[in-house]
Amino acid sequence: MRWDVALPIMLMFATMIPLAYVAIRRSRKHDNKTSSYYLGGRTLGPWVLIFTVLASAASAGTFIGTSGLAYAQGYGWVWGAMMQVPSAVLALGLVGKKYAIVARKLNLITFTDFFKERYESRGVTVLTSICMVIFLVAYMVAQFVGGARVLESITGINYFVLVIIFAGVVALYTAFGGFLAAAFTDAAQGVIMLLGGVALWIVVLTAVGGVSEVEAGTKALDGQLYVLPGDSGFDLPMMISYAVMFGLLLAALPHVSVRAMSYRNSAALHKALWVGPAIMAVFTLGFGAMGLIGRVLYPEAELADMVLPTLIIDHLPGPLAGAVLAAPLAAVMSTVDSMILVVSAALVRDLYRGFIKPDMSDAAQSKAGTWTSLAIGVVVLVLALNPPDFLQHIINFAIGGLEAGLFVPLILGLYWKRGNALGAILSLLGGMLYYLLAANFIPALSLGMMPVLMATVFSLVLYVLAAFIGPRPSHRVIVKFWGTQKAIEAMRAETQPAVRG
């Protein structure tokens, strides 16, 4: 085992524990334990906010997958990855500000709380919660499996040991530290990703002689690598698809959008909106372009996904290589901790409290959230130790399906008063079903684009049609979402039973 490489990675794991401890201490100061556990008491400043949003959105695929695709098929995939650059602006701007205002007015805590209050439908609540639990658990397993496999090949540490360390550390700091622990560790992991990307970019570009040498070298090996659409098939419809999928629709993913409810004030939000695109550009361009550099240095690589780790090992000193290799590992951890909390909230607040024990106290919810998060970590660990053969098919459907199903009822629910529960149910089911058919059985339904794009269009059509066919939202919903705080309080006063003297 390369101890000089492994030790910095172990050190990164070790730093997560004191960060979680700080988060636990801060969480205890909040009166509302549930809000503190799932939202950090809505106290995030700009830097923690932007790093937790970006680190949650940038999975291991941003680092390992994109560079591998760029190596194999050309710079079209670098452009594809760059479509994530506006994701922070859209997550915090399109969803964030409106979402946060509504959340504070109505004391919303979880992703599903929004759907429950906006559509007043048990069916919408149950459907949203179950979909998130199934698909996000599958995605978490894939993150652990992918990250552990890469690090196993680099460090020589046994795969099962790595998965146990992954799941154990993430489950512990997330379960006992809650949202603040996830946000603080996301920020630390985001800094690792940022500095790691910059360091690798400088060292490797120097080694090959600059950008012009990379371009000349790749063109000499295969001219199609610098041609669009080229072998990658990255034509205009595909560019539009990636722009929509990774730029726009990413904002609707539960583990990303729930971050929009957590910022301290408008100043924190506005600063994050300015900084976010620059940091995401380093993540995507910096690591994606490594695939093209790797094509020049290793033209005969057998496994494209191993090009980035190989570049790191070969061109950086051992300790620095370990620190940079921590970036994809940090991406795994930051994505999974966010998902654990979203799934925990769906199980505890939205399903158990919502349908089984509605009188559950604030303290009981917080305690149940801790143990549920820990249990989710154990489930993910067990599945990752022996992942089922069909897992990849579920994963392929998970993110695209959730985007196709959730984007329309979330965004139009925020901005369009006419949207109703029937539209939410039809668009959620219709979007995911269309995506499943287009991605796996009837490719023609995609019309030459990514399946998620046409699935979202289909979801939109269903939502709008249902809005005019089904009943209008109640007056109560209109007041809660578009009324003033005074109007909301007046409505609540009217619904309270009279106090007899």
TrEMBL record:
GO cellular component: plasma membrane
Record keywords: Cell membrane, Membrane, Transmembrane, Transmembrane helix, Transport
Keyword Transmembrane: yes
UniProt entry tagged with the keyword NADP: no
GO biological process: sodium ion export across plasma membrane
Any one GO MF annotation of this record: sodium ion transmembrane transporter activity
Pfam families for this protein: SSF
Superkingdom, taxonomy of origin: Bacteria
Recorded coiled-coil stretches: none
Main location per the UniProt record: membrane
Membrane topology: Multi-pass membrane protein
Gene3D superfamilies per UniProt: Sodium/glucose cotransporter
Cell location: Membrane
Homology family: Belongs to the sodium:solute symporter (SSF) (TC 2.A.21) family.
Protein name per Swiss-Prot or TrEMBL: Sodium/pantothenate symporter
